[in-house]
Amino acid sequence: MTTISTTIAPPRPITPRVSPLEGLRQTMTLAWRTLVQVRHNPWELGDFSIQPIMFVLLFTYVFGGAIAGSTGAYLTFALPGIIVMNMLFVTMYVGTGLNTDLTKGVFDRLRSLPIARWAPLAGRISADLVKQAWSIVLLLGVGMILGFRIGTNLASLLAAVALILLFALSFSWVSVLVGVIAKDPEKVQIFGFTALFPVTFVSNVFVQTETMPGWLQPIVKANPVSILSDAARGLMVGGPVARPVMLTLMWAALIAVVFAPLAVARFKRRV
Amino acid sequence: MSQLDRLAGTAPAIEVEGLVKRFGDTTALAGVDLAVRHGSVLGLLGPNGAGKTTAVRVLATLLKPDAGRATVGGYDVVREAHQVRQLIGLTGQYASVDDTLTGTENLVLIGRLLGMPRPEAKARARELLDAFALSDAAGRATKTYSGGMRRRLDLAASLVGHPQLLYLDEPTTGLDPRGRTELWDLIRGLVADGVTVLLTTQYLNEADSLADDIVVIDHGKVIATGTPAELKAKIGARTLEVRPADDADLPTVVAVVGELANVTPEVEGGLVTAPVADPELLPIVVRRLDDAGVVVAELALRTSSLEEVFLTLTGRPADEVAEEGIAA
Predict the structure, then answer these.
(1) Which of A209, A248, B167, B321 would you call most buried, defined as having the most Cβ atoms within 10 angstroms of its Cβ?
(2) Which residues contact B155 (CB under 8 A, 6 or more apart)?
(3) Which of A8, A15, A41 lies closest to B162 in CB terms?
(4) Is A39 part of the contact surface with chain B (CB cutoff 8 Å)?
(5) Same domain, B249 and B293
(6) How confident is the model over B185-198, as pLDDT tens digits?
């Protein structure tokens, strides 16, 4: 066996800390890694591509006629909400990915490297935003093929996308918290489905609030999923914008303020 | 440590004083002291649950100690963790590669994180994959690798940044004998290049064949230190073995050997064994047994294995201790 002649390099200068710019570069590298994983695991691509398309097709053609009278009218109503719902499910990848790294030991290797302490987490979340953007574009594309039309303008559409991504960023902290607490990645998935299904269905994503029983309506109206869906509808299709956007921003801030410190605290306890 | 010591390289590469780490009610490290000389291999030997991994995790800046002090390359592992991370490479059961990425991608990822430009990171990955006989599998996801390949990639991953110090936490656990020998050869090659190695193992022969110095720990405490030869000498350099021709003489043999060696001898399958410090004892044993009228079928004085050293130190055979550790 030959020796590895290059093991000891001339000593590199030892730096006292990571500069923010280096931290940002490390974040991009770690985001790249998360996206390369998708290439090797096409199932995941199917998860956040095919599944939302199935939802659009199912709801539009199975329920659309019954709920809104025509599939076209229903798509106009439901697509912004379906995009919001899909966004919440996609945020769960942050938690599953993080949990996988923690349980498999990848995280310890990363932490033994001289990189910014926040880079692994920031890398995950950045990669998640790329997945989110991809899902939104995909859903809008499929929606348009099926007859969805933007009722506003490009600036409003971009604002809607930005608002959804911002909410995703905030909601990622919930996913991080679950990812840190859960024993294994499957538990994160199970949580995602059991918690997110009721939250997204007890909302105005699929049906108008007014069609629901009176006691349920206040809950549906207060649900941030409904509020964000309203904001997305307003920005994409038309209708009231100011109030739902304001409320969405408040919800996003509230979720981040509550869950970010909780997630970071649990995170520090675990590693 | 002074800046001068650091520059002159006279100080130990790793210095640990009174290290304590608790997890709830469990004390994983109960005041550990050790030092690793530059360019040497220190074998941290102990059963499962002895605190080996905890010690490595503290030295790798992954855990903060509750008390005590540890410096690596002169840098404090708590206050100067970032500096320490620039010196070390870590290979262990827990510091793993990403099994959804290919071998190349894993190594490029680390190179990029260490600030190498992409072409340099790729070149370094190729070089390491070549050296570790992984070139053919470079483009495959590492979840398809065999255990031995996986360990070699783990080791390669810890070498991307040209570390001066390498921590190998039970690097061969779970490998077949061939895989183990291959990895030993690789480690010897690294040591020949001047890397300082901290090796933890529960295999006595692994410590014996790789380490310059050995620290034996059990229940979070150092129970012995020295070179493999010193440790063997310290405990009683030799093992005396006597097999009487007639099993009826066993009690007499046990009594004689016990008295002379000043320990309670072990008896197994008609063979009486006892550690002895003084080789001069052999003729005396022969004479006393002759006086007692015992006919001896087999009589030998041989160098103790590290296994026996371990038994003497912990009062339990290594296997038993290891099993206990797993159960705990």
Answers:
(1) B167
(2) B91, B132, B168, B171, B183, B186, B187
(3) A8
(4) no
(5) yes
(6) 888 988 898 899 99
Same domain, B180 and B295: no
Q: Are residues B182 and B240 in the same domain?
A: no
Lowest average pLDDT, out of A20-29, B37-46, B118-127, B275-284, goes to: B275-284
- Sequence-distant (≥ 6) Cβ neighbours of residue A225 within 8 angstroms: A81, A84, A85, A88, A199, A200, A203, A205
Crossing angle between the packed helical segments A119-146 and A20-40, to the nearest 10 degrees: 50
User: What is the band of B326 on the pLDDT scale with cuts at 50, 70, 90?
Assistant: very low
ipTM of the complex, rounded to two decimals: 0.86
Considering only CB atoms, B82 lies closest to which of A5, A18, A101, namely A18
CB B209 within 8 A of CB A23: no
pLDDT at position B324: 40
Residue B37 lies in a domain: yes
Mutate to test the interface with A, among B6, B98, B142 (most CBs of A within 10 A): B98
Per-residue pLDDT at B212 exceeds 50:
yes
Last residue of a domain, one of B206, B232, B258: B232
User: What is chain A's percent helix, strand, coil content, to nearest 5?
Assistant: 80, 0, 20
| Chain A interface includes B86 (CB < 8 A) | yes
CA pair distance B177, A205, nearest whole angstrom = 60
**Most B CBs within 10 Å: which of A2, A6, A7, A269, as the mutation test of the B interface?**
A7
CATH number, domain with residue B93:
3.40.50.300
The chain A residue lying nearest B63, using CA atoms, is A271
Read off the pLDDT of residues A70-107 as tens digits, 9 standing for 90 and up.
788 888 889 999 999 999 999 999 999 999 999 988 99
Average pLDDT (A167-171) is: 96
For residues B244-271, average pLDDT: 88
Q: Are residues B176 and B89 in the same domain?
A: yes
The two tokens of residue B194 are 């001047």
**Cβ A22–B93 below 8 Å, yes or no?**
no
**A168/chain B closest Cα distance in angstroms:** 25
Q: Which of residues 111-140 of A touch B (CB under 8 A)?
A: 111-115, 119
Going B207 to B208 to B211 to B213, the CA torsion angle's sign is positive
In the predicted structure, residue A7 carries a pLDDT above the cut 60: no
**Residue B208 falls inside a structural domain:** yes
Q: Answer yes or no: do B133 and B268 share one domain.
A: no
Structural domain including B285 reads 236-303
What whole-number distance in Å separates Cα of residue B325 and Cα of residue B328? 5
Q: Within this chain, do residues B43 and B167 fall inside the same structural domain, yes or no?
A: yes
| pLDDT for the residue numbered A5 | 47
Checking if the pLDDT of B318 tops 70, the result is: no
pTM confidence score: 0.80
Cβ-defined contact of B189 to A113 (cutoff 8 Å)? no
Q: Do residue B258 and residue B218 come from a single domain?
A: no
CA distance B12 to chain A (A): 17
Shared-domain flag, residues B153 and B279: no
A237: distance to nearest CA of chain B, Å? 41
